[in-house]
Amino acid sequence: MTGPSELSARSAAHKGQRSARGGGGRTPTQSAVHWTEREKYGFLLQLLECPEFLLPERLERRISVEKTKMAAYQLEQKIVNENIRQMDGTDSLHRPELLESLYSQVSHLDSVLSSLEGQIQVLEAVQRSLPRPTHGGSQHDSGTDGHEPDSLEAMRTVLSEGPEPTPGRRAAPCSPHPAELEPAVLLHLERCAHRKTRRQLQLLQNNARSYDSSGRQQRVTSQPESLHGGSEGSLTGSLETLASLASSDRLLDELKLREMTIAQLRGRVLQLERARLDNIPLDPAREISRLQSSVVQLERVRDELTLQNFSLKSKLSEFTQQLSSSGVQGGSEHDAEQQRRIGELETQLHNQRNELEQLRADSAQLRALEARLEESLSRRETTERYLASRQEELTVLKLDLETLQEENTRLKDDLSRVLRQEAEHSSRLVRLSDCESELGRLQEERRLLADSLLRERTLRKQYFNQMEELKGRIRVFCRLRPLSEPERRQGGAAPIDCADPYTLCVGGDKGQREFQFDRVFTEDTSQQRIFDEVESLVQSSMDGYNVCICAYGQTGSGKTHTLLGDEQAPGVAPRAFRRLFELAQARAAQTSCAISTYMLELYNDRLVDLLAPAGARTDEKLEVKKDRRGTVVVSGAALLPCQDAAHLQLLFERAVGARRTGATRMNAASSRSHLVIGVTVEATSRVNGAVTRGKLSLLDLAGSERAAKSGADADQLREANAINKSLSALADVISSLAAEQSFVPYRNSKLTMLMQDSLGGNAKTLMFVNISPAQYNLDETLTSLQYASRVKQITNSAARNADNKEITRLKNVIAKLRQRVDCGQPSLEERDEG
Ligand SMILES: Nc1ncnc2c1ncn2[C@@H]1O[C@H](COP(=O)(O)OP(=O)(O)OP(=O)(O)O)[C@@H](O)[C@H]1O
Fold it and tell me: Which of 395, 658, 704, 761 is surrounded by the most beta carbons within 10 Å?
């Protein structure tokens, strides 16, 4: 069965052959190349067999008829091609026979078109080679019908370089004469003209003969009249005979010239034939050559005979002349003799004519044989060509078959692979649809989880804040540091005991005192444990609260260690930085966080920007202000955005490195200033665009100390004064907040101004009170604990309110007791001392 790919391959091959043969968009020149020289020559011979076709009008008509035929065939071919094109499509699979028949139709049409084009070309070449008919009379007097050229000049002109342009007429368009056609055409034309001249000559001779016989009769019947004074009629007849003879001479000359031209043309045709024979296979060429040489020999014999004929004719005319002259002179004695001789000569002439006719018949037969040979050769050539083309086609088809077989194998492999892939693909599709439904379910689940997570988060925040509320806005943690070696040597540890995680018992001269805090951390508490307690506040700053974590205590009590720590044991600050960025990362899907920082030092009541580049640090006064949202800002201080925790840590280390420290008797690296680290967090919700702003303030306060004890010099005394002043202002603020006074003296110190937005209000504050365990520092420890207790009083509003009521009651009791003292009863202090 013929497959569609095979058919299309064959179609392509067929089209390739057609285009190679000049099919499709052929030009006449291209077609002529494929209409062989032999075919052209055969057609030309056929044409010359019917000389009436050489008339210009007929040629014209024939050309136009052939062109019309060609147009019709071309149209038909187009239709068949269109059918093939459609058949090459989907239907071709089911109708291979129809397609085959269409292909054979196309081949047939191709060959017909090629033949028609060749014929047209030959006809046009013949037309071009003919002299153009002139309008208004013939330029060359042919003496016939005005169309048949018989003028020698015209022939020569055509033979040499084509027709001369005549005056009033433009030269023929410059189309080249096919060199091999012109001599053959001219030869034929010349032969036609030759035959005509000979017919005329024959006519003249017949006339002369009839006149001669009538003259003789006249002479026989009217001899007595001619003897008496001559006859006028016989004179007229003699003159006509002379005229006929003269015209006969002219015709004879013309015949000679024509025969010479014919000989020339024949030689040229032979030359061309020989050249053509070079291209013809060996045996037929030899055969044609042999036949042609015999034709030439025959023609030579015929020419000789023709010459003899001429000489006889001339002799005859001489005799006729003599005869007529002797007739004019009144007869001669040798009449009978001459008549006999004339009779003999005429017989001889007649015989020679018969011979000549015989030769001509032989020649015609030879030509017919030659034509048949040509025909059979051409048929053989056509068959050979057809066989060769079939052979080529067969080779191409074999190659096509091999290619198709390979293609088929490859396609089978492809098909099996594709089928395998399709099976895999369909199983994958099933899996994919399962996955899709699973994904849909998971997405729904995720959405529900996200909703519940949001609800949970909101609740968590709510509970967290409630818990923080319960813990109090101000929380106080107490941290006891380990006893150092110098302290051990200087009297050892003070009687400080941690009764429970919230109670610290300190023994002293006035007995043991108890201090309650939110948490009490003993000397063995790790930095991580401390941070675990602080972490919730760091989270609050992410939730939009202002959070302040500060460390208070005498110098060397461990404030810096708690807040900043060192490389081995990082304090609250570096851990808080890391936690902030972890929280920002965890919430990245819901909120985008922008974290910035400023780091300041308050030294001798003067603010210093610790993040300003070293060279750029000037004495420019930094001012503490509040923005429209009530947040404290320091104008002139750098507020640097931080990309990540490492960046913030780097800035922190830079600031700590720039901080002012000095050696005291109490601490080799004592902080002589308050360190304020502010980390602002601006969180923008990706859901609704809501912005929350929080701040984490870390405050490492300078050590509270007694100047004499710390061994301070004049500068250090000034530093200590400033430090104590600011700490006292901080205590005042906290007292005011505790007493819920309407006025809180924030502006008494730069420190309190700076901490305004982180103390009181909605702010959450955590104070570490750091204490030394040394007996040597017991007084300072007690002072610190009392200070922290004051702060603790405002940690819980409910408790605070209760405390306040209690204080009021006690104050009333004191007042009554004072009245009793005034009445001789002991006072409260006296009772306590007792
Ligand atoms: N909990 C602790 N565990 C171990 N060592 C501690 C602890 N607390 C403080 N120290 C050590 O005590 C010394 C003094 O601590 P730190 O410098 O933190 O005191 P300070 O209160 O900041 O002093 P100043 O106010 O003078 O700056 C340091 O050497 C520190 O390492």
Answer: 704
